[in-house]
Amino acid sequence: MDPASFFSSITGIVIVAIIFAVPIIAVIAAMAIILAVVGRRHKERMKMIEQGMMPPPPRKQKGNYYSLMITGAIFFAFGLALFAGELAGKGNDFGGGFMFGFIGLAMLACFAIIRVARKNEPADKTDAHQPPPPPLPPQP
Question: pTM of the predicted model, to two decimals?
Fold first, then answer.
């Protein structure tokens, strides 16, 4: 079946629509979840302020840098697989394998740099953001 007749058929149009709809719906769903979480946190803080309570300062969150290692390893393995496939097929287009392989190596290098930098950071004091204890009642 040639591409022109495929796209003119109803099946072709539905398949193309589904292919493009899935990532778009995933992005919209992720944005909706993020907005819901941020809105909930904001309402919670506003409710605390209305009740006269002092909300805790926002925590400085450290990201999980292990995702860099996992993604880098996957990209590197994918690049090696493409490279090996081109070698086995006696092709001479190694661009895809090199591209994914070097992206994977760059992510692994970022992981190593962040890991060393985080080890050299001073430890956070968990009691730094604790409010002072309430005053004791007067003693008779």
Answer: 0.41
